[in-house]
Amino acid sequence: MLDTRFIANDIDLGAQAVDATQSVDIYRLQVGRHGLLKAEDERQLGREINETISNLVFHLISSEAGLEKLEQLMTDYLFGYQNKDGSVSKRWAMSHEPAFIENLISSVIDLIRVTRFMNQEDSDEATNAKHNLAALLNMLSISRSYLVDLIDDDMQASPSLRKQLRRYARLRNQLVESNLRLVFSVAAKFSSVGVPYNDLIQEGNIGLIKASDRFNFTKGYRFSTYALLTIQNNVKSAIQRKYPLISRPGYLQEKMSIIREVRNAYIQKEGRKPNLAVLSELTGIPLSQLERIESFPNFSVPINTSGASDEDLTLGIEIPDKYQNSAALYEEQQQKQQIEAALAELNSREKQVILMRYGVGYKKEFTLKEVAEQLYLSIERVRQIEKKAMRKIMNE
């Protein structure tokens, strides 16, 4: 496995003997040993990775338990791209909606189960279904680390499976090592924000590994293009964690940086500070939102900081307890635990159907027709899902 703390595995730094500057310099030398991949080499590496992942999928679905785990992984992933009412989340970028792809996955998995039941696992239909399922997995760009995590100790007893796992680790490491220069270029941009440079590199390496687990070469762009955003997000998250106990959200911090840069540029040019109307026009931030941002304090204060007066005051916040009756609170907690325990037995689609049918978390109970319309299913299919879910809940 690739060491996210220090990728130059072949050098013993002696953590206590080498300071941060020396470690970064030695690390930079190790990065220079790995050459950049050409576009064709990158595509070939992507094809080998997809082939290895397909082999892992075939091993996984060779048992019913593995097939259920894979189905749960894919449906949970798609469920995360849907709002509570079943509508598509804004960050969904594929041409087909999540519900359509979920139905397609269910159809392919049902076909695999049917061929297994009929002892036709070696038929052309079963083989095509397995390849289609592996292709759908690659198309969704689900992190391959999740797929590897599904493979339990019993499955790893197979020598051929262990060989495929080692092959995937080698291919992924090759993709990561050939793009380590990206981490240096991103870390250099944030080197003056107060976070140690070697910490920025470490966080950038983690982002690079995450990108390598999701990259799909069939999309047509280079890996460096895809990985750059993931590396930047990881580095920015590390910087945000460096702030005091109560810190500003990342999106707000970015807007405040834009405002500060525009204000400084205006002062340099005009010799005076811009008013909020001018600042709003230059930054493109609505005036009402700009007023709220400007009203925030320029520093963070821990919630237990004492006041300046003689009285021992703190900034602690007291939250009143709305539950005066402890018996009522206990009963409500028990009910929540029972509901959560019952829903834990269901997959994401069954859980969504039950929640909508009984109005849990919604303002009303949905009819079969309304649920079918929201989840892009037939009424009969919703009825079957609800019946199956209730059997699981009732332990029939």
From TrEMBL:
Q: Which SUPFAM superfamilies match?
A: Sigma2 domain of RNA polymerase sigma factors, Sigma3 and sigma4 domains of RNA polymerase sigma factors
Sorted alphabetically, which CDD domains does this protein's record hold? Sigma70_r4 (cd06171)
- From which domain of life does this come? Bacteria
What's in the keyword line of the UniProt record? DNA-binding, Sigma factor, Transcription, Transcription regulation
Is the keyword Cytoplasm in the record? Answer: no
Q: What InterPro entries does this protein map onto?
A: RNA_pol_sigma-70_dom, RNA_pol_sigma70, RNA_pol_sigma70_r2, RNA_pol_sigma70_r4, RNA_pol_sigma_r2, RNA_pol_sigma_r3/r4-like, Sigma-70_RNA_pol_init_factors
Domain RNA polymerase sigma-70 spans what residues? 367-393
Identify the NCBIfam families for this entry. sigma70-ECF
Q: Which PANTHER family match?
A: RNA POLYMERASE SIGMA FACTOR RPO, RNA POLYMERASE SIGMA FACTOR RPOD
Q: Would you tell me the protein name for this molecule?
A: Sigma-70 family RNA polymerase sigma factor
Q: Which organism is it from?
A: Neptunomonas phycophila
